[in-house]
Structure formats: structure tokens, C-alpha cells
Amino acid sequence: MKLEVKELGPLKRAIKVEIPEDVVSRKFLEVFSEINKKIQLPGFRQGKIPINMLEKRFANEAKDDVIKSLIPDYYERAMKELGIMPVVDPMIDDIAVNRNAPLSFTATVEVKPQVEVGNYNGVKLVKKKITITEQDVDKVLAAMQEYYGELVVWEDDHVTVNGDYLIIDFEGFLEGKPVENGKAEGLLVRIGDKVLLPDFEEQIKGRKKGDEFEIKAVLPEGGRLKVPIPGQPFESVARIATFNVKVKEVKKKNIPNIDEEFAKDAGAGSLVELRQRIKKDLLDGREREVEASNKNLLVKQLTEMHTFEIPQSLVEMEVHDMMEITRQQIHQSGKSPEDVGFDPEKARIEFEKQGRNNVKSALILEAIADKEGITVQVGDMDDEVKEIAEATKKPIEEVRRLLLLQEGAMNDIKARVLGKKVLDFVYSKAIFNEEVEAS
Which of 62, 178, 179, 249 could form a disulfide with 167 if both were Cys (CB 3.0 to 4.6 A apart)? Predict the structure, then answer.
């Protein structure tokens, strides 16, 4: 095998590969032999057709088979011999193939940069003091009270006020046409939760069970979509809709007292123990938030202290993924990209910088992993799959099977796990030289 390497830029290489003639000739003979076994020609027994006749009739098919067989194999051999690590699949062109000649092709690849990692030990971060107050615990207890509260029916003549629960039917019309997602039957809402349109919620106050009435409410342009669209600010334009509403039932929530019995219902031995448990949970959660924030700052510092060329193909893949996630969020909201004015070009510009930073930080963490000998073990992958299963509420084996079926999914998870391990390692070496109150 002969190899010629031409630099097309800091990270792009054109590798011309020449496969020896004897290898090519043998492969052609193998291909023609297989063709010979499968076809029939008048005047010839099956498998006894002369090769020159096969070559005349099936030259193109044979060339295609030889190319499909030899090029992937010799491309891998070439990359291994040259020590090149392409970041994406190559572009293969300039293919020259004939039975009694060497086969040549050119593979154009983008390679990973050589990242010379700086001093990542002792990165300075601000230590944040975390304080959980009794008032914080009281807020959680109040939320628990609400959760354990029991809904009971108000008297029929009760006039609705803030805090009341209503079961309502409604149907909305705009300019005589039904409002999209503007109809419901038996919907339970609480006045004051602000889940309804402001005008709508205000006008169901002061009603009683059995009331049927008409209200008018302002709709925002494009409905109530809250998906953030890069380059497309959310704007409201007044549109007046009419809703026919019926109050089917009015309820209130009986809130339990916070006492020893309440604590036992919540699984604690006493009210003191319940407060301690809540305080610990709040502290653990806040510590995780602070650690996540500090790690984001750590990654930012690492990217700022390193300068190197970034493979554009990896950036484009990152941008593509972010674009797809945004489109999925829009569709899950019941809208189309056109409905919300999604501008792909503006979105791409905004995602470009984020994608470049993501790729850069991943390459830095990968370089640190190489330097420190940090690797991903089987147990690490099992833990990650378990986390995915818990988050998606699916059996672990089902999640594992789906990931194995999805091309590249396990490699993506392995890269994510490696990044986490390296970040944990660098974080453990950070210097927290100042203490302030966590906001």
C-alpha cells in the first residue's frame, strides 16, 4: 500500500491511497467467481463462463463490489499506519479501479487538533456558603400541606374567590372559528394559579356552581407557546376571543395541620425529625446546584485558557443536534416551526458559538483524560444507563437494547461519561480561595 498525504489546512488532510495490483486482481477474481456461480448464459454450464466474457458483461458490477470490499478496509489501514484520527467519516473521491492495475482513491478527512493542555490543576473558584434557614423549611412544609390537602365540595351558593378549585367546561371562539386548544371538559383549575389566560381567570371569580356565562379574553399571537426560539422574540398581539363557560363544581382544599400526626403521615418519626430531613434534603440539593454552577465556570475557564483550531465538522454536528432539539420542542408544543416564525439561519448563527464552545471543551477534557490515563470502565457505562432508565422510567435492559440499536448512541454515552469523570477530577483539584453567600 502506498500513501501520500497532502495538508489542505491546519486540520484537513487529503490522503491518496494506492492498493497493490495483486490484491486488486485477486479481489476481481473472487468477485467474478461469485458472479459465475449465480448467473446462467446460453451455451455455458453454470460456473464455467470464461472470465473475459464475465468482464465484458459485468465489469461495472464487479468494480462496484471490489470498491465496496477494498476501500473501507484499506482506508482503516491507512489511518492506522499514519496515526490519523478523523473526527467524522471521510469524503472518498478520485477512485481509479481496473482488474489488472492498482486501485487508488483519495480520502479527505478532518483530524482532531493536538491539544497541549495547560495547568488545569488548582483552577481558582469561588467557594459559596450555603445556608438553609428555618423559613426555607417552613416553605417546604407549606408545600407538603398543600400536597396532602383534601378537596371537598363547597355549598352550592358559595361565590368563587382566589384559592377555590373549579371544575369547568369551556369552548373558545375567535372571529367565529374555534380557538386551537381552546376547548375543555371537566377541567380542574384553581383560581390564582395563573395557568389560564389572565382575563379568563379574572372573570371566573364571583361565580357559583351551575353558572353558565360568556367571557372575553385576550389571546397572545401564536397562542401560549413558551419555547425559546433563537432570533425570534416572543411577542403578544391582542386578539379577543369569546369563551362559553360552565361551572360544574366548586371545591376547596382542607389543609392538614403541621403536627406530629402530619409528620408520621409524611414518613417521619416526629415533627423534629421531619424538619431535619427537609433541611438535609434542601442542603443536598443546593450543594448539587452550586457544584453544577462551579463546574460550568470551571469549563469556561478551561476553554478560555486554551487556544487551538477546532474541527468545523464537529461544530456543524453540534449545531445540527441543537437545531433538531429546538424543532422537537416546537413540535411537542403542538406547533410547527412556521407557526412560531422559527428562522433556521438566525438560529444557526446563535447556536454556532455555543456549539464551538461545546466542541472545544470536549476536546480539552479528552486531552486531559489522555494525559491522566482516565478511562471509562464497564461499571461507569452501567451507571449511566441506569440513570437514563430512571429518568425515562423504563427498564434498564430495554434502555440498553434501544441504545445498542441506535447507531453511535453508546459512543456518545461513553464520551459523556468520560467528560464527567475528567471534570470531576479537575474539580477535585480546584482551589476555593474565597467564601461568599450562595445566591
Answer: 249
